[in-house]
Amino acid sequence: MQVPLLDLSEQYRRLAGPIRDEIEEILRTQNFILGPKVEEFECALADYCGAKHAVGVSSGTDALLDILMALELGPNDAVITTAYTFFATAGCIVRVGATPLFVDIDAVTFNISPDAIANFLRRCERNAEGRVVDPAGRVVRAIIPVHLFGLCCDMDAINALAELYQLQVIEDAAQAIGAEYPAADGRTHRAGTMSLAGSLSFYPSKNLGAAGDAGAVLCNDGALAGRLRIYRQHGMEPRYYHHLVGGNFRLDAIQAAILKVKLPHLDDWSAARRRVADFYREQFEACGLTSKVTLPAEPYRGRGLTNHHIYHQYVIRAPERDALQKHLAARGIGTAIYYPLGLHEQECFAGLGYHAGDLPETERAARESLALPIYPELRPEMQSAVVAAMADFFAK
Ligand SMILES: *Cc1c(COP(=O)(O)O)cnc(C)c1O
Description:
Helices cover 38% and strands 14% of the residues.
């Protein structure tokens, strides 16, 4: 049986009518860039996420870039982040002229480790103004946690450190739209709303996917939202007057309209993904596979949340990962490795001076992790085929 890692065709079949109607209307009016469709989607998105403001942009990457530009991060600034993430997280830091400072991940959740952040900050000094400076003398301005695979980072711990060391926090929530975090104050917060600003991606394979590239920034501060909108459009305010240099990070009306059709279904899709994850766990336990592979952690399960995990990816750890992937591929089962190489070991960042061995948990995750098929429409018999092929591998 062929089991693809992801198949978006059925989702489209079910929503084809309203999506085509929206596109038809936009083609008729010829209002392609920003405008009312984008504003309607921004309102619906802010509402869904529990943010005061949402600013639609051209991609998740541009969302991060927009935030970093609006906060005026630049040369001689440094940003603490994870090396176990998609490239854009660190790429945007470098593009504004700042330096990423990579710290290790938590071995259980794959997310940035608050202990690793604390250890790093303890090794830093304060300058004359009391700002934290890294060992190379750069001002440490911010932390970018990434809510990886659909699970929120430990934001209470991260925000507490940020307060102690006067750092700004920016969430990369590209993989975690709607994912919830049970804060110590008893409230539940959704990804991207627990810091100064959060970035979302609507890349087609993300849980809420556009028909192309799209993204958004969430924030609760009205002044910052205004700056994000100005930077989104070449620093222009009013038209053709530029007091800052921004970029073209605008969202298309067609993408916004499609996303607005899909958004009301997102919680159902996330619930369906959790059912897929539950089914995998039951079957792996029944087959005795849980002693061979490590299943995803669910630290916020049973805390009364709707989206304790949104399973953007279902990532297991397997010691013989590469052989397992080959075995599954030979049986028609699609898998992927997120991510095969930590960002600290990427060629383009060689100048930052990191070496193999610097981030042991990141490097172990890069060796052991394997993403299995997960999407709302994945059928039980397809999942059973995945489990059977896994059992077959470990029976050898
Ligand atoms: C997808 C992703 C991005 C970038 O989003 P694009 O829309 O592809 O530009 C950034 N960070 C993470 C963690 C992502 O998964």
